[in-house]
Specification:
This protein has 294 residues and is mainly alpha-helical. It has one domain. It is built from 13 helices and no strands. The longest helix is centred in the C-terminal third of the chain and has 29 residues. The protein is globular and about 45 Å long.
């Protein structure tokens, strides 16, 4: 069992790995993106409800906590939808590059909250990681400039950065499990009001099995872990360390889909690994050392 100082870092890397696995479901589930997000939220919400009951978590929220919880939930849902729309309007590569501008927005946003200049080292790491992601995706970007997809991707990145900052500075006292429970509840209600029951009725048994696996194992539980890591590592470091997700995705594509990485992808992956590893080591260095036993 890891000690308390390394638990947030290990949790974050496990979370990012599971998110990378979840990206493969976009090619497997034959449903529109927004419907996938709606339907995957249902089993995730149900499982987190059962888990919260088993752990005897309180479902009572103060009015202000409930307000911020729903607000963060709306940010999360809109981030999911705009990211999928960006990918659908272009390629996974372009959507990924736009999404991973979020460490830059997070670094600037956290500096604004603290009313200080952005940390130069963290800003440099964010930009370095973005260069690496661009190299990883360069071959797939040869189709040209796609303004709507770029706009949607940037909106998704800003929403994700905002969600993480709000979670850290407005709702960090709410248990991570209950934060994610509120976000999934918001997703189910908001998208349910928009779509109604039609997507529920149109999904077949195989779709539901895949959606349940996606919603629980690759969305609900990893996002809960990410919120836990946010509390201990902070939004900027968590976002910098999370840049490693494309490297995990390339490795999984090689192992599962037999897609061999190109030289550009390997070069970009090395840059991303360097930036994420530096952020990981920097985070460990800042965490308090355990006290010696008396």
């Amino acid at each position: 069992m890891p000690n308390n100082s390394s638990a947030p870092t290990i949790t974050l890397h496990l979370t990012i790995f599971f998110w990378a696995c979840g990206a493969l479901f976009a090619k497997i589930i034959d449903l529109p993106a927004a419907e996938i997000i709606y339907l995957r939220s249902v089993p995730g919400f149900l499982v987190l409800t059962l888990l919260a009951l088993a752990l005897k978590k309180s479902f009572y929220f103060r009015p202000m906590d409930l307000f911020f919880g729903i607000l963060i939930g709306l940010l999360t849902v809109t981030h999911w939808v705009t990211f999928y729309q960006s990918v659908q309007a272009s390629t996974v590569a372009l959507g990924l590059i736009m999404l991973y501008t979020h460490p830059v927005f997070t670094t600037l946003g956290e500096a604004l909250i603290h009313r200080q200049r952005p940390n130069r080292q963290q800003l440099l790491l964010a930009l370095s990681g973005l260069v690496g992601i661009a190299l990883v995706s360069l071959q797939s970007l040869s189709s040209g400039f796609n303004l709507p997809a770029i706009g949607l991707g940037l909106i998704s990145a800003i929403l994700f950065a905002s969600r993480n900052l709000f979670s850290k500075y407005l709702a960090s006292h709410i248990p991570s499990l209950m934060q994610m429970w509120l976000q999934l509840l918001t997703a189910v209600v908001a998208l349910g009001l928009f779509f109604g029951l039609e997507p529920v009725q149109s999904a077949n048994q195989q779709d539901w099995l895949l959606l349940a696996l996606l919603g629980v194992v690759f969305v609900a539980l990893p996002h809960t872990g990410y919120l836990y890591a946010l509390k201990h590592l902070g939004p900027t470091r968590a976002s910098l360390m999370g840049m490693i997700q494309p490297v995990y995705a390339i490795g999984l594509a090689f192992l599962i889909l037999d897609e061999f990485p190109t030289l550009l992808e390997i070069t970009g992956g090395i840059i991303i690994l360097g930036a994420a590893s530096w952020a990981t080591l920097d985070a460990r260095g800042d965490q308090p050392k355990p006290r010696p036993a008396l």
